[in-house]
Amino acid sequence: NFMLTQPHSVSESPGKTVTISCTRGSGSIASNYVQWYQQRPGSSPTTVIYDDNQRPSGVPDRFSGSIDSSSNSASLTISGLKTEDEADYYCQSYDTNAVFFGGGTKLTVL
Amino acid sequence: QVQLQESGPGLVKPSQTLSLTCTVFGGSIYSGGNYWSWIRQHPAKGLEWIGYIYYSGSTFYNPSLKSRVTISVDTSKNHFSLKLSSVTAADTAVYYCAKVSLVDNWFDPWGQGTLVTVSS
Prior knowledge:
Chain A has about 110 residues and is mainly beta. In chain A, about 0% of the residues lie in helices and about 45% in strands.
């Protein structure tokens, strides 16, 4: 078992770039894929990144994902921020027959 | 395109069993290649994985809930179900179901979620 730690909140201005981190507590971040989900108020989560750095169809290329073995973390980067990007973002990974979610990061675009 | 829809009582009394069903539309549970999962979200909190099931009936549960959780599948009705026993107010949450890729544990899509309140 392991934990995924995210910052509680981040904020940035429209048009800017923001990066949200997701640090794996034990074991290598590269061992298992990381997904990122966006959740707007009152809605269910939707995928913005899967398999570390893949974008589902329909997700703008302003969203990108990466992993960094040196910091044992995954990152979600959103460039050209829009007010519609304001939401909660969750990272997710897994181990043998177990699934783990990060605590979520509230992105404010102001 | 696969869609999922949760259904079940929105109010459950303490100590009773919470029961929910997730119906799959636009795809078959029997097709393989996927797990079928339950996730919950406490009010204003993060996501918690409850467990998942393969069409064959193999199940995997969150250890923190394992003693109270049963997930089952009915391929003839193309749905899967959640039972959570001995509920308390701490089980009040929005419950989601989702399709999960076997290959990479990617949860997509999710159902719209259903709020279950535990109260007398």
